[in-house]
Amino acid sequence: MCAITAGQRGRSVLVIEKSNKVGKKILMSGGGRCNFTNLYVEPDRFLSANPHFCKSALSRYTQWDFVALVEKHGIAYYDKGQGQLFCDESAKDIVAMLLAECEEAGVQIRTECEVKALKVEASSLESDQSDNGVLIDTNDGTFQAQSLVIATGGLSIPTLGGSGYGYEVAEQFGLKKLPLKPALVPFTFTDGFKQISEKLSGLSVEARVSSAGKSFLEPVLFTHRGLSGPAVLQLSSYWRDGMIVEMDLLPTQDAAELLKGFKEASPKGLLRTQLAYHLPKHLVAELEILWWPKYADTALAEIPDKVLQQVAENLNGWHLKPAGTEGYRTAEVTLGGVCTDGLSSKTMESKTQPGLYFIGEVVDVTGHLGGFNFQWAWASGYVAGQVV
Ligand SMILES: Cc1cc2nc3c(=O)[nH]c(=O)nc-3n(C[C@H](O)[C@H](O)[C@H](O)COP(=O)(O)OP(=O)(O)OC[C@H]3O[C@@H](n4cnc5c(N)ncnc54)[C@H](O)[C@@H]3O)c2cc1C
User: pTM of the entire structure?
Assistant: First the structure.
């Protein structure tokens, strides 16, 4: 996006890509259909040490701008819910669109070209100077440029090209790097919950998960090693080691009232039978072993209110303690990164090194699940492309 914007301004642009093709993450994204943006982009859908930083770029290149580009290229798309826009056909359409725009803007692309080192004269890398300011050493020769835009992404899924090189560059030029952490990533467990999740692996329920003062009500997926699904992935961006996660399995109901109702309406019935009208049977079977094993075959009328009350509390707030996350191997994004204090929010240019820019995921701006990370990549790329 940055290359396209700069190319359209008549700049001579070279994209240096270490992989054998560009846009690998786009191709893999959204299950192969690329959730390319979201209809409801708001600054509060992004995490950053400076929550205001993302506002300028997001307001100058909006989701509507990207949608217009997608429509210009005749790419069919749909809203999967909650404003998440996906390609009807394939993520390949988005990469093809960007490549077509690059070609039209005269952008050159060099793949299998990895940046190894950068050399710059103390103050010669300036966007408004015509002399060549930076020497870019790669495995495929040395290049010179007046402006250099770092768009190396994060550490997630290393096989897709993510590298820590952008963070090294930031440090080389005196920019602060905030601690990195895998985000939008499943939780793993090593306690008794691991056996439960293993047994229920593949099962998805609509639940509210909460931790660190944040809550997400979306599907939760049980996996072989713990929990995943949109609600859990969203929460993982806020969760810190050692924190408890509270899972509300009946997010739209007061479980105490519900169980009281069971007892009144079906005094001879079993708790598992009644609960199975509201939750998957396999899940109820596991909850029974965990929370009311002694009363598994006891008629509801005979189960003490105290026991039902405790079960209700657990249903509305099951306390779970993840051992950790699946890490960068499966994380969709990297939290943290190049500290925004050292960057201009209007242009993404380094405040300490004129002519050096950082865009996309390498910057300490991380979106929620739902197309926000791509929108940040497009928007930050666009604003840098306007000035490089
Ligand atoms: C599996 C998966 C699915 C995702 N799905 C979505 C989704 O549907 N919607 C959404 O909004 N976000 C999604 N994301 C997140 C999104 O892909 C990223 O936030 C986004 O791609 C970041 O863009 P970027 O340009 O900053 O970095 P990247 O897309 O990671 O691109 C960085 C590029 O830099 C190259 N590179 C790195 N180091 C060097 C070097 N030294 N020299 C040369 N080249 C180098 C890499 O090879 C790579 O091609 C997903 C992520 C993953 C992993």
Answer: 0.95
